Amino acid sequence: MNTSAMAQSGRSRAPRMARGSVTEGAARAGFAARGVIYLLVGALALQIAFGGTGRQADRGGALQELAQKPFGAVLLWALGIGLVGMALWRLSEALFGSIGKDGRSARKRLMAAVRFAFYVFVAYSVLSFALSRHQSGGSSDQQSRDATARVLEIPAGQWLVGAAGIGIVVAGGWIAVRAVLRKYHDKLRLGQMSRRTRQLVDVTGVAGGAARGLVFAVAGVFAVRAAIDYEPDKAKGLDDTLRTFADTPLGPWLLIWVAAGLVLFGVFSFAMARWRRV
């Protein structure tokens, strides 16, 4: 290879390396931000199980909890910026593909695009809260009921709500099964972990992922019920879904287990921020 070709190759690699570095930093900041939210939601759910809080166990409640801490405003902005980083990373996966042998497949890019849209919404809600310091749009429960009511009013709305509910149930099951099977191993730098660290990551990944998937699946069941009965009030957000676990024959113990699982998923998100291959 002549000197000119080598120089051109070096120049073409430089932008890719710079883009990769920025993308990696954005992804790791996003995982850390996600971890903070799940830690707070899980902690609030634990307080509910023991009858110790009136705050909503959802993203809005987590933001309100964070705002009360020292340097709360700074923490809120850092959280929002981290979630923007997560959204940008997912956008890069949709545009350029992700790691893995099928990372450039249409299916993976479509999933990345969906995740990009989700994190844009979450980042917007967090940054809006940071600006106003008031929960905008109401609780997750009210948002779920309002959205369900609007969809039910349109033609074929009942079918759309039912299909969305089934999709959420399937997604929840998929999340839980993948966690139990430890599919996340494919995306972690396991060689950089000690044996003890890997065991701890597996505890948080399996238990946390299973709890997260269960919450998704139960929320989807409530959406399906709302569609079948044509009653938007039967749709539930994260807070109401979590409180439902305390109404089972197991009493508050099931909620305690699920809440602890969400806390563990928050810890697992920090592990992803450290060892995830991006």
Tags for this model:
9 helices, mainly alpha, 278 residues
Q: Short summary of the structure?
A:
With 278 residues, the chain is mostly helical.
What features would you describe in this structure?
The chain is mostly helical. The chain is 76% helix and 0% strand. The chain is built from 9 helices and no strands. The chain has helices at 3-49, 59-67, 72-96, 106-132, 140-152, 157-180, 195-229, 238-245, 252-275. Helix 1 (3-49) crosses helix 2 (59-67) and helix 6 packs antiparallel against helix 7.
Topology:
Blueprint: H1 3-49, H2 59-67, H3 72-96, H4 106-132, H5 140-152, H6 157-180, H7 195-229, H8 238-245, H9 252-275
Helix pairs in contact: 1-2, 1-3, 1-9, 3-4, 5-6, 6-7, 7-9, 8-9
**Helix share of residues?**
over 70%
Question: How would a textbook summarize the main sheet?
Answer: none
* Number of extended strands: 0
pLDDT < 50 stretches:
5-12
Number of helices: 9
SSE string: HHHHHHHHH
Global shape: globular
The average pLDDT value, as a whole number, equals 87
* Distance from first to last alpha carbon: 31 Å
Q: From the alpha-carbon coordinates, what is the Rg to the nearest angstrom?
A: 20 Å
Question: In percent, how much strand structure appears in the residues?
Answer: under 5%
User: Pairing-aware structural class of the strands and helices?
Assistant: mainly alpha
